[in-house]
Design goal:
The protein has helices at about 10-20, 45-55, 70-80, 85-90, 115-120, 155-160, 190-195, 220-230, 235-240, 260-285; strands at about 5, 5-10, 35, 65, 100-105, 105-110, 135-140, 145-150, 165-170, 170-175, 175-180, 200-205, 245, 295, 305-310, 320. It has 10 helices and 16 strands. The termini are close together. The chain is α/β, with parallel strands linked by helices. Strand 14 and strand 15 form a beta hairpin. The strands form 3 sheets. Strands 1, 3, 4, 7, 8, 10, 11, 12, 13, 14 and 15 form an 11-stranded mixed β-sheet that branches. Strands 5-6-9 form a 3-stranded mixed β-sheet, with helices on one face. Strands 2-16 form a two-stranded antiparallel ribbon. Residues about 5-30 and about 290-323 have low confidence and may be disordered. Helix content is about 30%, strand content about 20%. Helix 2 runs parallel beside helix 10 (about 260-285).
C-alpha cells in the first residue's frame, strides 16, 4: 500500500502484535535507527547539516520519515543523495523554485514548480526504488488526520502535499483526498518510524520562530498560530523519540533561503552535540520499550551543549498507528 491513515491507537500490546504480524518489523543485527525530520519551511535546510553529521560519524539510518520541508530532505536522502549533493542544490534554492503566485480562494501560491525542483534533487521518484525505506506524511483536510505515504508509488505528489502550508499553498487533490501540510497533523514523524521497524528514533525538530509582535500580514498570523498550537502538542511525538535534535534557528525567518550555509552549519553543530548519545546505541543498545528522549540544546558559540533527559508519557492513548 502507498497511503495509510493514522488512526487512534489500540492497546499498546495489540498494536505491537499487529505491527509484528504485518511484516514491517523485520530486523537485522544491531539497532534499527530511524530518522524523523520535522517541518520549518526554509529553516528546514538545517536538516542537511544533521545528515552531514550522521555521515561523518558513520551512523546507519535504516528508515527515514519527513513532513513539510523535512519531507524534501528525507526523500533526497532516501533516494541516495549525499549531504553534499543536497547542499549544492539548497545553496542556490529560491522561493520561486517551488512556488508560483496565483489568484485562488484556497491559497496564494501553487507548488507545481516543485515537480521540476524535485526532479533535480531526487535520484528516484518511486517509493519502492528508494535506497532507504521512506515515509512522507501529509494531512487529510476532510478527515482531519495524518496520511502516511510509503512502500510503493509516486513520491513527488506526497511531498508536494506535505509541503502545502495552509493559506500559502493550494491544497493538493491526490488519490481522492484533499491534502495539506503534514505539519498540521504531525509536527515530527517519529511514530511512523516505529511501525516501519525502527527501535531507535532520532527526531529533528526545527524550533518555532520567536514572537516579535509584528504580524503585518495574513501569513505571519497563520504561521504564528500554528507555532502556538505545535508547542502545545509537542509531547505527542517526543514520546516516540530517543534523541531530539533542535538546531538553534528560531531567530531566522520562514523564508531565509539566503542563510542556507548558516542553517546547515547550525544543524551539523546540533547533531554533533547529540552524537555521543547516538553512538552508544551501536555498542550498548538500549531496551526497545519506552525510550527516553535526549534533547541537544547548543548554546552560545564556544559553550558546551547541555543534554536533558525527558521521559515520555507512558500513556499512549491518542497516538497514531498504521492500519
Amino acid at each position: 500500500m502507498d497511503a495509510v491513515e493514522m488512526k487512534p491507537a489500540l492497546g499498546w500490546l495489540e498494536a505491537a502484535a499487529k505491527w509484528f504480524r504485518s511484516g514491517l518489523a523485520k530486523k537485522s543485527g544491531g539497532p534499527r535507527i530511524g530518522l524523523a525530520l520535522g517541518g520549518g519551511f526554509a529553516r528546514g535546510i538545517a536538516h542537511i547539516g544533521v545528515l552531514r553529521a550522521l555521515e561523518k560519524n558513520n551512523i546507519p539510518i535504516h528508515v527515514v520519515a519527513g513532513v513539510s520541508s523535512g519531507a524534501i530532505v528525507a526523500a533526497a536522502m532516501a533516494s541516495g543523495s549525499s549531504a553534499d549533493e543536497i547542499q549544492r542544490i539548497a545553496l542556490s534554492m529560491k522561493f520561486r523554485d517551488i512556488a508560483r503566485w496565483t489568484v485562488n480562494l484556497l491559497g496564494l501560491a501553487g507548488n507545481d514548480r516543485m515537480i521540476t525542483f524535485l526532479g533535480r534533487l531526487l535520484k528516484t521518484n518511486r517509493f519502492e526504488e528508494m535506497q532507504i525505506p521512506l515515509a512522507i506524511i501529509a494531512t487529510d483536510l476532510v478527515k482531519g488526520g495524518p496520511v502516511t505515504f510509503h512502500s510503493k508509488g509516486d513520491v513527488v505528489a506526497p511531498i508536494r502535499a506535505s509541503c502545502a502550508y495552509p493559506g500559502l499553498f493550494l491544497p493538493l487533490r491526490y488519490q481522492g483526498r484533499m491534502l495539506v501540510d503534514g505539519f498540521v497533523s504531525m509536527e515530527v514523524p517519529a511514530a511512523p518510524l516505529l511501525q516501519m521497524g525502527a527501535d531507535r528514533v532520532i527526531s529533528v525538530s526545527i524550533p518555532n520562530q520567536e514572537g516579535n509582535g509584528d504580524y503585518g500580514n495574513m501569513f505571519s498570523v497563520v504561521s504564528r498560530c500554528f507555532q502556538v498550537m505545535s508547542a502545545r502538542t509537542e509531547n505527542s511525538w517526543r514520546r516516540y523519540s530517543n534523541v531530539v535534535i533542535s538546531p538553534p534557528v528560531a531567530d531566522m525567518s520562514w523564508d531565509s533561503f539566503a542563510s542556507a550555509s548558516r542553517l546547515i552549519e547550525l544543524g551539523e553543530q546540533s547533531a554533533m552535540a547529540a552524537m555521543p548519545a547516538i553512538k552508544k546505541w551501536l555498542t550498548q543498545p538500549m531496551p526497545a520499550a519506552l525510550p527516553s528522549a535526549i534533547q541537544s540544546r547548543p548554546q552560545a558559540q564556544g559553550t558546551r551543549p547541555q543534554f536533558g533527559n525527558i521521559f515520555p508519557n507512558r500513556d499512549r492513548k491518542g497516538a497514531g498507528v498504521f492500519r
